[in-house]
């Protein structure tokens, strides 16, 4: 994806919240019925890779009303990014998907238990948070440099200790997948409009 945790940063600035954590707290405080009525968010703020391969894709907040506030926007963003990750996961062939028993969450999203639980449920796999998950990208780059400098793979590529684990919550499936179906229909509906509005893109 081209916009994941950066989409949450954008939403934090948009809503004037003091931090991403504060905005996530507002989203987590929503009831399940409020989440079901939140806007839908296409997280294509910088185009998109998988599955659309569309550098000209744009972000969309669909279905805003007067009743929506920062928490609703935050939930829409977290959910939309999660749906984008599900799109990527679903682009793998069936055999490969079925071989995946659990997933590890790294990067900015690893700071939020609320986001981790949503992803575990959507991807229908246990999701593991490991020690240092928030800085895993930098650690990965450092490991590659260490390997290039002659480090031994068994020493360099050790699995970090498990910090916490999130299991899928089937009780959320009905609402989440109904919204995912709408999410997948939204992109092809608005894509032709981008060429009209942004002809130079």
**On the 0-100 scale, what is the average pLDDT?**
92
Structural class: mainly alpha
Q: Strand order across the biggest sheet? A: 3-4-5
DSSP helix fraction: 40-55%
3D structure, described in words:
- This protein has one domain: Nucleotidyltransferase, domain 5 (2-Layer Sandwich).
- β3, α6 and β4 form a beta-alpha-beta unit.
- With 201 residues, the protein is mostly helical.
- The two termini are 19 Å apart.
- A three-stranded mixed sheet has the order 3-4-5.
- The mean pLDDT is 92.
- α2 crosses α4.
- The chain contains nine helices and five strands; from the N terminus they run αααββααβαβααβα.
Would you kindly provide a brief summary of this structure?
This protein is mainly α. The chain is 52% helix and 8% strand.
What is the topology?
Elements: H1 5-15, H2 20-28, H3 32-36, E1 40-42, E2 60-62, H4 70-90, H5 94-99, E3 103-104, H6 113-123, E4 127-130, H7 136-148, H8 153-156, E5 162-166, H9 173-197
Parallel strand pairs: 3-4
Antiparallel strand pairs: 1-2, 4-5
Using brief descriptors, characterize the structure shown.
three-stranded mixed beta sheet, mainly alpha, 5 strands, 201 residues, globular, Nucleotidyltransferase, domain 5, two-stranded antiparallel ribbon
């Amino acid at each position: 994806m081209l916009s994941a945790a950066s989409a949450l940063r954008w939403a934090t600035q948009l809503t004037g919240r003091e931090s991403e954590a504060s905005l996530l707290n507002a989203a987590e405080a929503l009831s399940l019925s409020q989440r079901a009525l939140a806007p839908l968010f296409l997280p294509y703020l910088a185009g998109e890779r998988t599955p659309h391969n569309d550098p000209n894709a744009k972000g969309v907040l669909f279905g805003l009303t007067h009743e929506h506030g920062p928490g609703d926007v935050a939930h829409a963003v977290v959910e939309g990014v999660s749906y984008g990750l599900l799109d990527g996961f679903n682009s793998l062939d069936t055999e490969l998907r079925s071989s995946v028993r659990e997933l590890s969450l790294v990067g900015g999203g690893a700071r939020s238990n609320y986001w981790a639980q949503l992803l575990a449920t959507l991807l229908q796999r246990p999701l593991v948070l490991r020690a240092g998950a928030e800085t895993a990208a930098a650690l990965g780059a450092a490991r590659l440099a260490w390997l290039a400098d002659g480090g031994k793979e068994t020493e360099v590529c050790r699995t970090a200790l498990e910090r916490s684990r999130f299991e899928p919550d089937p009780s959320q499936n009905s609402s989440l997948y109904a919204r995912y179906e709408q999410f997948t229909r939204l992109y092809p509906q608005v894509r032709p409009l981008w060429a009209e509005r942004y002809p130079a893109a």
